[in-house]
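ok so for the tutorial part 2 we go from a plain amino acid sequence to predicted structure tokens. step 1 is just haveing the sequence, like this:
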Amino acid sequence: MQHLLTMQALLSLLCGSVVGFSLALIGGGGSILAVPLLLYVVGVRDPHLAIGTSALAVSFNAFANLIPHARAGHVRWKVAFTFAATGVVGAYIGSSIGKAVNGKHLLVLFALLMIVVAALMLRGRRSGPDRYPLPHMYPRLGAVGLGAGGLSGFFGIGGGFLIVPGLIFASGMEIIHAIGTSLFAVGAFGLTAAVNYAASGLIDWPVAAEFIGGGIVGGWLGVHGAKRLAKTRGALNLIFALAIIAVAILMLFKSLRS
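step 2 — the prediction. this is what the tokens look like for a chain of 258 residues:
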């Protein structure tokens, strides 16, 4: 029994480092792997437990990565608070619905979402001219934040792939500010979902701590790797997107077969 617990701890650290490394190396989309890694590598058997644990880890990593962006002046705080204010309501509603959905059905939906995320990664992020602030910006931010928060809470993910273009659409800000500002929303949405899941006993606290610890180490390595591999960022994005599609197909196969 002790051997199994030690092995699970090592796998949690390793998987957390993979997610942290990918997030720092290529940006948004990395946290989508947290749930399948928790399920199929770490050995968390309950899909709801994996989603709750993932939400907590995603929240911690987002707030940690927010600090350097804030120091660099990439966070528009009024936009961040407005977006998060309605988004946390959506995250609470989404996570409440997610807890009530059958675990197997939830995994099928999650796998389909992974394919959408991979497609968006392959398409790439486009940065238009800075049009900030747009007219009637705050009502738009509230509406988009509510929807993004709901999706984030339902699946227990960061949702940066949706939040970044949502911020650009609603406020007209350039992409570097959208990325920095999105981290506050990702952290707030993840924390809301995690609290909701924790209230139902659906967080594996030791695994979450190990996953977060691994994510810190992996993120540090990813930051250094990003500088050296900057010229191959497109190829890395392609490889990572294809890996997400492969994992999504595996999840669909396992879920539909059972």
